[in-house]
Input
Amino acid sequence: MEFELKWVAWEITRRCNLHCVHCRSSSELEVAGHPDFPTEEAYRVLDDIATFAKPVIVLSGGEPLLRADVFDIAAYGTEKGFRMCLATNGTLVTPETCERMKAAGIRMVSLSLDGADAGVHDDFRQQPGAFDGTLNAARLFREHGIPFLVNSSFTKRNQDQIPKVYRLAKELGATAWYMFMIVPTGRGEDILEELISPEDYEEILNWHYEMERGEDELLVRPTCAPHYYRVRLQRAKEAGERVRHRTLKFSTGGAKGCLAGQLIALIDVDGNVLPCSYFPKAAGNIRKQSLREIWNESPLFKELRDFSKYKGRCGSCEYVAVCGGCRARAYAVTGDYLDEEPFCGYVPRRLRAGEGASKPGG
Ligand code: SF4
Ligand code: SF4
Output
C-alpha cells in the first residue's frame, strides 16, 4: 500500500452554532483558546499542501460557514488545483450561500442527517430546527445543482432509525449516504455507554451489506467501520459472489477500512495534524513543520502504517491489511492505539487455531 495523502479534513473554525451530543471537537459558538486563524495563514497551508500532494480538501469545523472568508479559502484551494469540499450542518445554507459555493468551485458538500424525523435528529443535534435546516439545505443544493452527500451518525439513541435515514437520504437526492457509528472522542467520551454494542454493530454491517447489494443509485458506505471490509469479504465468499465496489471520486477510493494517517489526515484549527477526525493525538503541527515532513516522518504515522505492530485480535487477523480496525476506538477504549478494535467481535483464524494467543489483548 502506498501512503499518499489523498484526503484532508481541515477544521477551519471550531465555532459552531449547534451543540451535538457526539461532537468530536466539543464545538461551541465561542471557543476560548482555539481562535480562527487568519485568511493569510489559510493560504499558506494550501500552498504547503500543494508542494507534495493534491488531496481532496474538506473545509470543516465546527461549522465552516461561520467563517466570513470560507469562500475565499475555497476559491484559493480551487485555483491551486485541489478538489475542495465543504462539511456543514446545513442550518446556515441560503440561496446566496449556494451561489457562492459554486463560484468558489466547491465540488461536493456533506450534510448531516441523524434521524428520519425532527424529534430524533434535533435531539441528537441538541437544536430544535436542525432537521428542518438539513432538509432545507438539501432542497437548496438540489435547486442549485450542487452535489451533496449525507453523513449520518448513530448511537444506541438512534440506531433503530438506520434504514429510515438511508431511505430519506435517497429521497433527498443525495449522491452518497455514509453511515457512521460514533467514535468516542471530544464530547463523545461522555456517551461511551451510548455506543452501539459490538453485536448490534455486526448485525448493522450485515444489514448494510444486503442493502448495498440492491442499491444501484446511491453510493453507500459505512464510514469508519473498518471491519465492514471483513464482513463484505466474508459474505461475498459465503455466497460465491464478487465484492461489489463502487466509489465516489471525492473519497479515498476505499482502499482499506481504516485509513488514518495512511491516506487521510485532519488539520485542526490550531495547526495540529492528526491521523483522522476522531484520533486525538497529533503527529505534528504545521505552524512548526511542513505538512510534507509530518506526513513522511512522523513516528505516529509510521506506526499506524506498520500493521505488524498492531496488537490483540487485529494483530493476529488475516483481514488486518484490508480492515485494520479503528485505531481511534482502540485508543479511546484501551489507551493504546495499536490495540485491537474493541467493536469488532471477530476471532481471527490464527487465534481460533490457538496460534498467537499470547499476544497482548489476544
Ligand atoms: S480483528 Fe481487527 S483487523 Fe480483524 S476484522 Fe476485526 S477489526 Fe478488522
Ligand atoms: S481511526 Fe480509522 S476507522 Fe477510526 S475514526 Fe479514524 S479513520 Fe476512521
The radius of gyration is 20 Å. The mean pLDDT is 89.
